[in-house]
Amino acid sequence: MQRRTDIGDAAESEKPQEIPSVVFRFHLILPLAVGGNSRLFLARYRVDVSSPYLNAMRLSNRFYFHVICSRSDEKLDICGAASKLAQTEGGKTCPRKKFYTLESRMAQKNSASIRSSMVRFDSGIAAFWALPKAKTKRPAVILLHERYGVVQHTKDLTLKLAQAGYIGLAPDLFSRFQGDRKALTRGDVRVELRDDEVLKDLGEAIDYLKKRSAVDASRIGIVGVCQTGRHAVLLAAHRTDVSACVVFYGAAGGKEWGTDEFKQEPLEALIDNLSSPLLGIFGEADHVISIDDVLKFRGCLERSKKGYHIRIYRDAPHGWLNDTMPGRYRKEAARDAWGLMLAYLKKTFGGGWDRDRLHWAFESDISTSYDFTKNVRLE
Predict the structure, then answer these.
(1) In angstroms, rounded to a whole number, what is the distance separating the alpha carbons of residues 232 and 142?
(2) At what angle do helices 75-89 and 36-44 cross, to 10 degrees?
(3) How far apart are CA 163 and CA 22, in angstroms?
(4) Which of 15, 24, 294, 345 has its CA 20 to 30 A from that of 288?
């Protein structure tokens, strides 16, 4: 394939993009029965819905939203969108210029020490990457996107990895898709991924990382989320230079156990060839992956004598890590799971996981009357 021009080779870039350090806030008051436009607004701008329910009664049938915009370049966009929304929904906005709380000062401090940019591999595949300011080489984590592609949520997670001290890289596995990208981002269309093509793309991602002077090439991990959970396992099964493998509510769903033109190897065979211990994070209320699926996944790991740590979160639906989807997002579970993942990465990258011993950990909080058929898709 013809080589394309690199649009930001961060470690060697003369002017890497800095993460905007301004946390912009304002208040938005909307009618209690918000319409479709309101829901789209809340999802797009990641509205903190932890307080509206508390304040709704005080404001008599109105929600009092505290909106946080963490990117300064969205400031005008979000203000304009909020004003237009308020006019159509019968609400109002109360903009506030920059004011800093402890939270915003911490965000400013963290952002100042992180660089991020879009980059391209030799084949032309685009990727978002973020790296912390560090004097020594850092471990790297390849973060695989959900079915929506490399959207803002994917970038947010990549930045969080950098805030934790890791170099994060999120490649676009949908680079071959020639259809409607906006429809893809909305979830109106789905792109199926071929195992062989994903292996090629992720191999290129690893090669890209190994060429960066800031990366400790001996410590590279992979995180798969939802649709790409399988592909985290796929890479760790085919490469011996992957030190950590994390799956967020993926890989174990019913259809994942079969083979076809896209899934060219049985999941059992991939698990049997895993080169690293696995962290699996699932939810009780997932409508895609049942508890029986998770138990089957666990059984395969044990039969193959692979180290693992699996945790099932109470009442967590599919996609509960995604804070841009208010119906799915579970703040406490997401915070705990992220901490669990960071602890796992620290242990595996730091040599704390003895590869000569089998470490199995299974944690669950599920109802005795659990019924998978009652789990539904949430937005």
Answers:
(1) 9
(2) 160
(3) 16
(4) 345
* All structural domains of the chain with their residue ranges: 24-99, 105-374
Strands (E) located in the chain: 17-18, 24-31, 62-69, 92-95, 114-120, 126-132, 138-143, 167-171, 215-225, 244-248, 278-283, 308-313, 360-364
Residue identified by tokens 């939203």 is 65
The conformational region for residue 377 under phi > 0 = left, psi -120 to 50 = alpha, else beta, is: beta
Please tell us whether the domain made up of 105-374 is placed in CATH 3.40.50.1820: yes
Distance CA(358)–CA(174), nearest Å, equals 36
**Fold agreement between 24-99 and 105-374:** no
Sheet holding 92-95, edge to edge: 62-69, 24-31, 92-95
Question: Two tokens at 67?
Answer: 């909106």
Distance between CA atoms of residues 344 and 288, nearest Å: 25
Contact (CB, 8 A) for 215 and 209 = yes
CA distance 278 to 300: 12
CA 56 to chain centre: 31
Q: pTM, whole model, 2 decimals?
A: 0.74
Do 281 and 341 touch, CB atoms closer than 8 A? yes
Cβ atoms of residues 189 and 182 within 8 Å:
no
Sites in the chain below the pLDDT cut of 50: 1-34, 45-78, 89-109
Strands 138-143 and 167-171: parallel
Are 116 and 17 in contact by the 8 Å Cβ rule? The answer is: yes
Q: Which of 214, 254, 300 is nearest to 11 (CA)?
A: 214
**Would you state the pLDDT for residue 41?**
52
Range 24-99 classified under CATH 3.30.70:
yes
Residue for token pair 């990549």: 158
Measured CA angle at 258 (ends 254, 260), to 5 deg: 130
Residue 82 has what pLDDT?
Answer: 52
Measure the CA–CA gap between 278 and 246, rounded to whole angstroms.
6
Residue 30 CB partners (closer than 8 Å, separation 6+): 38, 62, 63, 65, 85, 86, 89, 91
